[in-house]
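pinned: reference chain
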Amino acid sequence: MPSFKDLKIYQESIRLMLEVENICKKLPNHEKFQLVDQATRSSSSVPDNISEGYTAYHYKDKINRFYDARKECGETQNHILKMEKKGYIKKELFQRLFDEYQQIIRGINGYISYLKK
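pinned: its structure tokens
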């Protein structure tokens, strides 16, 4: 029986969450309660919401969790932009991560469209 872990968007969101967490481990200590906390939470919320949406019983609950996952992708994109602007990560790394989160957003949009049919 298929599960949320079979979804490509879930698999990619887990991979990106781990990458963001590894980056956050290298950030300065003074960012621990701001940027580190916010980036790790938002990146973790993407797969959390995808799995909740996939396993939700009611149609509206499913859709709402995928909307939340999409918002968390956007928030994570903002955090990695801040990391780049503050000089913590290189522009190339920022752009790659930003684009990969865009791909997840597109996948989420596609899954929402599928659910609405």
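why pinned: The mean pLDDT is 97. The helical segments are 8-25, 32-55, 59-85, 91-116.
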